[in-house]
Design brief:
Strand content: 25-35%
Number of helices: 2
Distance between the termini: 100 Å
Radius of gyration: 34 Å
């Protein structure tokens, strides 16, 4: 006669490692799946050779850890949603406050609307060098230029000066090229000033309106108080 009673079904072993999840078709386990496996193991274990109590304790501790992780994930998800709503509300409120002001944003457009021409802002790469300012009309034709002399690295405000002599009021595109002592090109980032007339809201957040331009609020570098 056999000395032990064999279970009708083999023991169900719990995985030694698991991640929070549990969606159908997903190899990860969630709270309910883990609990079902634990119950199945207890139900089908050999009564004459039960599971090691230490293993059972470890599995129960693992179940508790998984439950805590699920709770943390839910809390983080709620906090992220709240933070997103707050950020969106702040952006919308800030966008309204920009109406009627000038902003500085990446771009290469410049408006000439007075006899003095105007000014542009650029960020010159480290070390700087000798610079040249060139203006182009809407058709891309070169319509003016002037030598800027030596420019230091960093942010620079540059008057159009003689480059705008004789040009009618309107919108132009500008370019500032800089070369160092070795005649190598130095990186230059061009910025543009835009007067904000209104705000349009969409799925990508608030868009600032300046004439025919739409400027994402996230692209604004500086708000210039008039």
């Amino acid at each position: 006669m056999p000395t032990s009673i064999e279970a009708s079904q083999p023991p169900v072993l719990l995985p030694s490692r698991m991640t929070v999840g549990g969606a159908q078709g997903n190899p990860t386990l969630g709270k309910q799946e883990f609990l079902q496996l634990l119950v199945a193991q207890l139900k089908h274990q050999d009564p004459m050779n039960p599971s090691n109590p230490e293993d059972m304790a470890a599995q129960l501790a693992q179940f508790s850890s998984v439950e805590q992780l699920i709770g943390i994930n839910e809390q983080l998800g709620t906090q992220a949603s709240s933070a997103e709503v707050m950020a969106s509300s702040l952006n919308n409120s800030t966008a309204v406050g920009v109406i009627g002001k000038n902003v500085l944003t990446p771009g290469d457009q410049v408006a000439i609307d007075d006899p003095d021409g105007g000014a542009v802002t650029v960020v010159v790469g480290e070390g700087g060098g000798r610079g040249v300012l060139t203006l182009f009309d809407e058709g891309g034709n070169r319509v003016g230029a002037r030598d800027l002399g030596t420019l230091d690295g960093g942010r620079q405000d540059i008057d159009l000066g003689s480059a705008a002599d004789g040009l009618p009021p309107g919108d132009y595109r500008y370019e500032v090229s800089v070369q160092d002592a070795d005649q190598s090109s130095v990186e230059v980032r061009t910025l543009m000033r835009a007067h904000i007339d209104g705000v349009r809201y969409g799925s990508n957040g608030p868009q600032l309106l300046s004439g025919d331009l739409e400027i994402p609020m996230a692209d604004v570098i500086e708000i210039i108080q008039q």
